[in-house]
Design brief:
This protein is an alpha+beta fold and about 160 residues long. About 50% of the residues lie in helices and about 25% in strands. Strands 1, 2, 3, 4 and 5 form a five-stranded antiparallel beta sheet that branches. It is globular and about 65 Å long.
């Protein structure tokens, strides 16, 4: 009985509180700021997952490329990428790099970003005669949509 009276008193008080200022609650309602923050956090988390997955694919591609296993290196290319660069063409690229830059010494730390809806991973490659950057772009389907190797200018000497 006591609980029913408290419940009835609370129900009766809520309309008075809501209309106390002369406005309905809907007229003054604003979206909670955390709803946008939550959406941004979820989007950021999804992008982070995509960048990590692309980083893993990039590492797999570069490991296979370094070993000369070009079929494995192209295994995660999407159809458009395979139409441009197949295993044979990738082998020709490696021969050219070996001739110009020598043998691979080490790889630097990969850096990941989102660019135009794609996860992009850039990995420094340190060869005997110079440095290259290996850039891998992954599409929304999780496949490699782009692969590029380009020379990196040496830092200016002081």
């Amino acid at each position: 009985m006591h609980r029913e009276l408290i419940a009835a008193a609370l129900i009766a008080a809520f309309p008075l509180l809501a209309f106390g200022a002369g406005q309905s609650p809907a007229a003054t309602e604003k979206p909670h700021p955390s709803s946008g923050a939550h959406a941004n956090a979820v989007a950021g988390q999804a992008e982070a997952v995509r960048m990590e997955a692309c980083g893993n694919l990039s590492g797999t591609l570069l490991d296979a490329f370094d070993k000369g296993d070009f079929k494995a290196a192209t295994a995660h290319f999407d159809n458009q990428m395979l139409a441009v660069v197949d295993a044979q063409k990738l082998g020709e690229v490696q021969k050219s790099i070996d001739g110009q830059f020598g043998k691979l010494g080490s790889r630097g730390t990969p850096q990941s970003v989102m660019y135009q809806g794609m996860a992009v991973v850039s990995t420094p490659m340190h060869y005997e005669k110079g440095d290259l950057a290996a850039v891998v772009a992954c599409g929304k389907d999780g496949k490699i949509a782009g692969f590029r190797l380009h020379p990196v200018a040496p830092p200016p000497s002081n």
